[in-house]
Amino acid sequence: MKEKTKFNRRDFINTGLRIGIGAGLGLIGVGLSTRSVNGKTTWQIDPAKCIQCGKCTTECVLQTSAVKCVHVTDMCGYCDLCSGYLKQGSKELNTAAENRLCPTNAIVRTFVEEPYFEYKIVEELCIACGKCVKNCGAFGNGSLQLQIQQQLCLNCNQCSIARNCPSQAITRVDTDSPYSLKGFKDLKIGG
Fold it and tell me: What is the pLDDT of residues 125-161, one digit of tens each?
């Protein structure tokens, strides 16, 4: 005959405490995991920390990265030569493919008036390699910057790019200020 297990007051309290603590921890975990889903924060790149390593191209969970080059037009007007557009040491300064720095031709150069040209980013072609951003920062004024495009980003709880970013340039920011551009105070994003 099987012996009947005694369940005393102490066991009842211990079991109740364990269940309560477990439920509390579970609720905290659910709250943390749904934080981004509630739209309070989103992922973004700090251009001051970004080293244009190219990880944004390969580490995003999307087929084509949600990171794109942004041209901060308040920092850069029209000019003849754009160090983010042309390769260093180009023999001729024209729009020939061999002179362009961008591997996908995502930067379009349009004549405005002598001697000025306008440079726009074709977002669909940008792969976030950061080559233009690196050259613009090294030889220009840094008006080309990488940013996570919020309309494309899945806002994963654990951003794959952030996890692999060597400079830890990707952090969560408030959704009220989803872009982190460097330069002037009131920046405007151009094409």
Answer: 999 999 999 999 998 889 999 999 999 999 999 999 9
Determine the 3-state secondary structure of 121 from DSSP. strand
Taking the C-alpha atoms of residue 3 and residue 30, their distance in angstroms, rounded to an integer, is: 41
Q: Within 10 Å of residue 52's Cβ, how many Cβ atoms? A: 24
Contacts 24+ apart (CB under 8 A), 33-40: 33/157, 35/157, 36/155, 36/156, 36/157, 36/172, 37/155, 39/175, 40/174, 40/175
User: What DSSP designation does 59 have?
Assistant: H
Place of tokens 């211990």: 14
pTM for the predicted model, two decimal places: 0.73
Q: Which of 54, 65, 64, 105 is nearest to 84 (CA)?
A: 105
- Helix, strand, coil percent content, the chain, rounded in steps of 5: 25, 20, 55
Q: Which tens digit of pLDDT belongs to each residue from 50-90?
A: 999 999 999 999 999 999 999 998 888 788 888 899 888 77
Query: Using only C-alpha atoms, what is the Rg of the chain?
Result: 25
